[in-house]
Amino acid sequence: MDASSSRTRPASAGDRAAYRTLLRCHGATVPIEDLAGLWGLTRAGALSTLSRLVAHGLATTERDAAHAVAPAPLVEQWSAEQDALLSAAREQLAAVRALLPAVSEPSARDRARDRASSGFETVRVAEVAPVLRRLCEEHEGDLWWLRPDQWRQPDRAATDDWVEPLLRQGRTLRAIYPARILEEGHAALVRRVWLGEQARVIAELPGRLLVVGDSVAIIPRSFDLSDGLALVVEQPALVTSLRLLAESLWERALVVPGLERGTETGHAGSRRLLLDQLARGVKDEQIARALGQSVRTVRRRVASLLEELDTTSRFQAGVEAVRRGWL
Predict the structure, then answer these.
(1) CA-based end-to-end distance of the chain
(2) pLDDT tens for residues 1-20?
(3) What are phi and psi of 145, to 5 degrees?
(4) Beta bridge partner(s), residue 65
(5) Which has the closest alpha carbon to 151: 122, 177, 131?
(6) Beta strand pairing status for 29-31 and 143-146?
């Protein structure tokens, strides 16, 4: 190891103590043969310590003697080295800043090339629907979809129209919705399940997301769509990470029983979901987290169900719900 590489790491406490001892000697010079006694080390240990001091620039050797380097010149030398490093860093930063305008606004002509080289492409939100359709048709694999508010979108029916053939071909589509869809968009949820979609609900979603197999994903550049742009991601590591995120949310989300019937109101669907969780023995705290409600609200709803079913225990409520065809 040369002196320049060793000097990038600070000397140890033991080496600093050895340097101070050497510095206090007359003329800051000691015969190498006397170093072991001076430092209280074996001959091999003294030579090893001296080697490190020389590597750190704290000592030199000449004519079988060790010489301590005076602190003032040493500090001056280190300051000069740090100034050189800072100057180089400033030059590199200036070069990066000069490149920013060129990469921040890619032209349409370069978009395909950039996508192939970087694994990303930026599209406008208005273009997302046809891009989604193309990606699902071009790439194989299961579809993972986070849909925070799609039942409110005007192009919902058009999306269902091109999703249906994919499901008929045997593609698996797993979609996660926020729990409020049971009240706000139950009919839209039922239609998707009728088409063959596997749906679950969770309290809230972090944003929109579609992952197609292990190949490609599309997400808003900003989850709230504030800039009106979306990212098409084909970088393998990121696609895998996004799929794992969807899978993790899927495991935490709740199955909505009875959707295949398609005749229940949003309130009935919400009630069936709560009954199903009670029948499975899920704790109130877990139900509250999944539905985005307080534990007090969940317990109030459970008490209301017990009263509606004219039962006094959750077990009896489950039996009565099955008898009435609610489960």
Answers:
(1) 74
(2) 444 444 446 668 788 888 88
(3) -135, 125
(4) 31, 62
(5) 177
(6) unpaired
